[in-house]
Design brief:
It is built from eleven helices and 15 strands. By secondary structure, the chain is of the alpha/beta class. The protein has two domains: 218 residues, Rossmann fold, CATH 3.40.50.2300; 145 residues, Response regulator (Rossmann fold). A hairpin with a 2-residue loop joins strand 1 and strand 2. It is globular and about 70 Å long.
Length: 401
């Protein structure tokens, strides 16, 4: 599945660490696999300079299901980085090994075990916070570093895990920024906060609820919906009865689209805002087009479609050539998440623990930002970007900091 969405590049920083990765869209070597943890990777093919190894790096995220587009965006970004890396003919090649979680935390145990059985040396993902909460402690025990491009739940970095990393800001930056934008910029003083009860959605909505109150406005409704439900009439009626002048939804684009559609159908004319889980063109189509118009969305990811940065332009061109569509939300973050793992491998690290040690002590210049991990796995630095649906397209309009 592809989108004809807007052109996206992320960040305005030069990609120093990708200099060795050519932009030809070549296939990766798949002649053998390596081992995770402390094991030694398997030798595959011979070259004039000696032996060549092939390691497996896992991808963990939704490729099917209602929120699959987010996972597809991430997998494509990671695959592009791996393809370019292998095209440079390194002594250690890499194969991307995918697991389709369907965005369902109930699949996370199976996914983590697949990664272990497949002997991956690192994982790009998990994509969603709920599945991360289940899979990451398993990766911790197996000594397999994970680098998520999109899991933003605050609690993920509060478990003392050493093998957990993410290349985006957490919800304790995004949620307060969203609340500040609603109250201080849009001047909304009565906010209804609704979530889908997921680890991600409820955590983000709770951060908004707290900051709305801290900003001197009122949370006039706190409600939850079933993300798989079709009729949100009860919540819509509560919003109208509470006279809310803004609705914030914590969850993913599929449910967000249905919710805003039903709000507008009921005559609600107030502000609608959601977070990065909804910042995808599918939000507009799932809402039925016009009902999404004027909605606000946030993301710890930038859209720099007008950037003249050569690395960003090269990324967009290579992504289009490989997948027939421009990169979308978190494609570039996944490219960087894979890039930092590949940099560790290029530096001679071929096991989970040695890759993890490299991640803990080095920085990497990506196309979205300079990637440097804190001891808890969080990225150093954070900026939250505000988007708006204008003429059916999601466009970046501001930042919250």
């Amino acid at each position: 599945m592809t989108l004809a969405g807007r052109r996206r590049t992320h960040g305005a920083l030069a990609l120093a660490g990708i200099a060795a990765l050519t932009l030809a869209a070549c296939g990766s070597s798949k002649s053998s696999t390596g081992n995770a943890g402390n094991a030694t990777p398997t030798t595959s093919a011979k070259s004039s300079s000696g032996s060549t190894q092939t390691l497996k790096v896992g991808f963990f995220g939704a490729l099917t299901g209602p929120d699959a587009q987010l996972g597809i965006n991430i997998k494509n970004g990671a695959q592009l980085a791996v393809t370019q890396y292998d095209a440079s003919n390194p002594p250690v090649k890499v194969e991307l090994d995918p697991f389709d979680s369907q965005g369902n935390p109930a699949q996370a145990n199976n996914g983590a075990q697949k990664m272990i059985n497949d002997k991956v040396v690192a994982v790009i993902g998990p994509a969603f916070s709920g599945e991360s909460a289940t899979a990451d402690p398993i990766f911790e025990t197996a000594q397999i570093p994970s680098v998520s491009a999109s899991a933003t739940a605050v609690k993920l970095a509060q478990n003392g895990w050493k093998y957990f990393h993410r290349v985006v800001a957490a919800d304790d930056a995004q949620g307060p920024g969203d609340a500040d934008y609603l109250v201080k910029v849009l001047k909304d003083t009565k906010v209804a906060a609704i979530d889908d009860s997921s680890t991600y959605g409820e955590g983000l909505a709770n951060a908004v609820r707290s900051q709305v109150s801290a900003d001197g406005a009122s949370v006039v409704l706190s409600d939850h919906i079933n993300p798989n439900g079709q009729d949100y009439g009860a919540s819509v009626n509560k919003v109208i009865a509470a006279h809310a002048d803004a609705v914030f939804f914590g969850g993913y684009y599929d449910a967000a689209g249905r919710l805003v559609n039903q709000l507008r159908a009921a005559g609600y004319t107030g502000t609608f805002m959601s977070g990065d889980g909804s910042e995808d063109q599918r939000f507009v189509s799932d809402a039925g087009g016009a009902p999404a118009e004027g909605s606000y969305l946030s993301c710890p990811c930038a859209d720099t479609t007008s950037s003249t940065n050569p690395a960003a332009q090269a990324f967009v061109s290579a992504y289009r050539a490989a997948f027939g569509t421009p990169p979308e939300i978190y494609s570039a973050e996944a490219y960087d998440a894979a890039g930092v793992v590949l940099a560790a491998i290029k530096a001679g690290n071929t096991t989970g623990p040695t890759i993890n040690s490299w991640l803990a002590s080095n920085s990497y210049q990506g196309i979205t930002k300079t990637i440097k991990f804190q001891p808890d796995g969080n990225i150093v630095g954070s900026t939250i970007y505000i988007y708006k649906v204008e003429n059916g397209k999601i466009v970046q309009i501001a930042t919250t900091s």
